[in-house]
Write a structure and sequence with these properties.
This protein is of the alpha/beta class. The chain has helices at residues 46-56, 75-89, 108-120, 137-142, 156-175; strands at residues 2-6, 15-22, 35-40, 63-68, 95-105, 125-129, 145-148.
């Protein structure tokens, strides 16, 4: 695991974010097609990490995770602080997909088709998962798309795993691989 300094706009204006690179390193030709997950909170459970890693190592191109610290304060302050950190981790040219309960609901084939279109644009795809208080309005405004994994409420660490599995599933659908059998 590597770490990098990201200007989050709170605490001492910088915070070490945990960066996990799993999977094949991108070469210069597919560097612009990388995907990134920016998530609030740290995945600590070893079983969750193992399951996450199981799918991440299969993703091509490389998939990067940036874990940001949980905000502190009132719910409004927490959302504002986390939003600043999330926005600081999203390059201005990135295509931002916010995971939010108000987002669109898709089936796996539709996600695969859309993921393929997004990747054809050649922009970095940044998937964003907020903290326990949810996403600040500024994140939804910055997002190019809002996606929901369903109407149920899920623990944020499970959302990470479900997202990575769905991205892997989408790639297998695009490739015609038999992983997706529905």
């Amino acid at each position: 695991m590597k770490s990098c300094v990201i200007n989050t706009g709170y605490q001492s204006d910088t915070h070490r974010a945990n960066v996990c690179d799993v999977g094949k390193k991108a070469n210069s030709k597919d560097q612009t097609k990388n995907m990134r997950l920016i998530a609030v909170g740290r995945m600590k459970d070893q079983a969750e990490k193992a399951l996450m890693g199981r799918y991440m190592k299969r993703l091509r191109p490389a998939f990067e995770i940036i874990e940001l610290p949980d905000g502190r304060g009132t719910p409004v302050e927490i959302k504002r602080k986390e939003a600043r950190a999330i926005l600081a981790a999203c390059p201005s040219h990135a295509y931002v997909i916010a995971l939010d309960e108000s987002g669109a609901h898709w089936h796996s084939v539709a996600l695969a088709q859309t993921l393929q279109k997004w990747q054809e644009h050649g922009r970095l795809l940044c998937f964003v998962i907020g903290g326990a208080e949810g996403l600040d309005a500024s994140i939804r405004q910055r997002a190019d798309y809002c996606l929901s994994l369903g109407l149920l409420t899920w623990p944020h660490m499970l959302v990470r795993i479900m997202l990575v599995e769905q991205l892997y599933r989408a790639q297998t659908i695009i490739a015609g691989h038999p992983y997706h059998r529905a």
